[in-house]
Amino acid sequence: MRAVVCYRGARLFHHLLARIVTGVRGIESNTVRLPISITEQELLAEIQLMNSAPSVDGLLVQLPVPQHIRERVVCDAVAPQKDVDGFHILNIGRFCVDEKSFMPATPAAVMEIIRRSGVETFGKNAVVCGRSKNVGLPIAMFLHGDASHGNYGGDATTTICHRHTPPEQLKLFTKSADIVITATGVPKLITADMVKEGVVIIDVGITRVPHPHDPGKTVLVGDVDFEGVSQKASLITPVPGGVGPVTVAMLMKNTLLAYTKEIKFPLHN
Ligand SMILES: Nc1nc(=O)c2c([nH]1)NC[C@@H]1CN(c3ccc(C(=O)N[C@@H](CCC(=O)O)C(=O)O)cc3)C=[N+]21
């Protein structure tokens, strides 16, 4: 099996793939680093090369792409049957209508954490902070979805808050939430006064901030004031060491699915 990552800065993925997956043959991964000045056409040609290589089971293009390149065009250039990110428009569309597809890794990681922790979502109030197409939106799709349609349907009453939700409104929603999932990149967006006792908190934020004591160094922080909120939460994921590593695991799961070709393309035939 061979997975190819075509992106800038795929160090972590590459590293974990090599170390964690040890099947009979394992997953081999390869990082292709391309210059920031690459044209859209040249990038599409690189993708085409991997699309048609029988030795490549899955590939992804690390986002964000440079400003002069159209992200949607790039995501749709990846062969849908090799689209381990689940970002091809066909996989997104199939996901939205409960057909088998490659699930985006970060949202799948959130649901995997919820499921494996035994958190009840059925009929509960869930609040998603952030509406990005690759993270916030699919998380909300999962949470509100119908479990009887397969996949990860959470059957939760789901509210999506975003940059235009006034702070006092956000607090009203998070206060009444059983589950808060935040993916905004705003450190300390969620504080203890905003949540109820026993709340489940999944922190998907990843922001690099200057190290508090060591100038020149940076640390990774989430969207949640962990110190305060962890006093009230029944379950809370840290950053780092929470959703991130599970995301990498979900990417490997998708790579295995691409290899076994369990997800059929095209759908109808
Ligand atoms: N096409 C594409 N697909 C992606 O899935 C994608 C992407 N582009 N662009 C960037 C974001 C970000 N992302 C992360 C995955 C794992 C960790 C992770 O495991 N982080 C560790 C910490 C790593 C560290 O300390 O540097 C943790 O949270 O514990 C972080 C970030 C995937 N992304």
Automatic annotation (TrEMBL):
<protein>
    <recommendedName>
        <fullName>Methenyltetrahydrofolate cyclohydrolase</fullName>
    </recommendedName>
</protein>
<dbReference type="InterPro" id="IPR000672">
    <property type="entry name" value="THF_DH/CycHdrlase"/>
</dbReference>
<dbReference type="InterPro" id="IPR020631">
    <property type="entry name" value="THF_DH/CycHdrlase_NAD-bd_dom"/>
</dbReference>
<dbReference type="GO" id="GO:0005739">
    <property type="term" value="C:mitochondrion"/>
</dbReference>
<dbReference type="Pfam" id="PF02882">
    <property type="entry name" value="THF_DHG_CYH_C"/>
</dbReference>
<dbReference type="InterPro" id="IPR036291">
    <property type="entry name" value="NAD(P)-bd_dom_sf"/>
</dbReference>
<dbReference type="GO" id="GO:0004488">
    <property type="term" value="F:methylenetetrahydrofolate dehydrogenase (NADP+) activity"/>
</dbReference>
<dbReference type="GO" id="GO:0004487">
    <property type="term" value="F:methylenetetrahydrofolate dehydrogenase (NAD+) activity"/>
</dbReference>
<dbReference type="GO" id="GO:0035999">
    <property type="term" value="P:tetrahydrofolate interconversion"/>
</dbReference>
<dbReference type="InterPro" id="IPR046346">
    <property type="entry name" value="Aminoacid_DH-like_N_sf"/>
</dbReference>
<dbReference type="Pfam" id="PF00763">
    <property type="entry name" value="THF_DHG_CYH"/>
</dbReference>
<feature type="domain" description="Tetrahydrofolate dehydrogenase/cyclohydrolase catalytic">
    <location>
        <begin position="26"/>
        <end position="85"/>
    </location>
</feature>
<dbReference type="GO" id="GO:0004477">
    <property type="term" value="F:methenyltetrahydrofolate cyclohydrolase activity"/>
</dbReference>
<feature type="domain" description="Tetrahydrofolate dehydrogenase/cyclohydrolase NAD(P)-binding">
    <location>
        <begin position="104"/>
        <end position="261"/>
    </location>
</feature>
<keyword id="KW-0554">One-carbon metabolism</keyword>
<dbReference type="InterPro" id="IPR020630">
    <property type="entry name" value="THF_DH/CycHdrlase_cat_dom"/>
</dbReference>
